[in-house]
Amino acid sequence: MKVRRMQGALAALVLATSLWSATTPAHAESIGSEESITSSALSVSKKGMDLSEKYAVWVSTNEDSEQSIVLYSIDNEKGERITTSSSSKSSPVTAGNYVAWIDYGRKDGDIYLYDITSQKTTKVTDSTFKATDQEIQISENYLVWTNAKDKNIYAYDLSKKSTIQLTTKGKASHPSVSNSYAVWQDNNSSDADIFYYDFKKGKAVLATDNSENQTYPDISDDVIVYEDDRNSLTEIYSYDISTGEETRVTKSKASTDSNKEGPQISGNKVIYLDDEELRIQSLSSSSYDEVGSSVSSRLQARINSKYVLYAVEGSNSVSLYLYNIKQDESSTLGSQAGDPASPAASDRYVIYLNQGKKQDQVVLYDVKSNVSTVLTSSNESPRKPLVSNKYAVWYDLKKDVLVSYDLKTGKKTSITTDDDVPHEDFYALQGQNLVWADETRKGYSLMLTDLKTNKSKDIEDVSTELKGLDLYDSRVIWADGQDNKIEVSVYDIDDEDTTTLKNRISDIDGVSVGENYAVWSENVGKDWELYYYDFKRETVNQLYRNKEPNDQRKPKMSGNVFVYEDNQYSRDDDQYYYYLYDLDSKSLMKYYPGEDGIPSEMAIGGNRVVWVDNRDSVSNVYMMAFDQPSDDPDNGGGDGEYKDYNFKKVLEDGTLDQIIKDNGNSYDGIYFVFMDGSTEEASVSMDDASEDFDVFIELIEGYGFENIYVRVYQ
Question: Is the pTM of this model over 0.85?
Answer without folding.
Answer: no
